[in-house]
Specification:
alpha+beta, Outer membrane lipoprotein wza fold like
Length: 223
Amino acid sequence: MPKDTPPAFLDRRVSRRAVMAFTGLAVAGLSGCAGGGGAQLPSASFVSLQEGPGEDYIIGPLDELTIFVWRNPELGAQVQVRPDGRITTPLITDMPAVGKTPSMLAEDIKLQLSQFIQEPIVSVIVNKFSGTYSQQVRVVGATAKPTSLSYRANMTLLDAMIAVGGLSEFAAGNRARLIRFDKQSGKQKEYGLRINDLLRKGDTRANVMLMPGDVIIIPESAF
């Protein structure tokens, strides 16, 4: 720094640095407060990486499944899970399916088929899924059509809002809340959402990842 630097220039530089430092601290503080308890919802891409249910998907009533038995196609089938939670396939009658992941059901089918064929290799694919309540995302409040949505892998807030037709005319989207059950603590956690910023301003930072069982509550504006 030259010795003849005007004091006013120094004052402006110091002030500018102070404002930048304060702003950084303020942003960090707001980020830490989001969602309560210092927790934050992960941001999301606008493009889902996978359309179907994830590996941990829990089969529910009325789900449609394809069961494939390698080298024994006659033992496979396309079935719908009955309301009582069971399925029937060749050689297997009334096997419970609800509450299991596809891999768990495949193992159970394999065990049953082992009585008839040697070392069967079984795959279970979920074609159409409804899911249990714990596998659904519910959107309630000031939206075009409040509903329960079947959770898909990599489902985002934007996906959910498109499915329910967006916000209603008097929705207070930036005051929306997301309720999520935390398995580790056994308690519900609440997070703030900025749906107005996402849908009307195109703020990609407001698009967040959803989880099975999430409840999105959208209030109406007070005026």
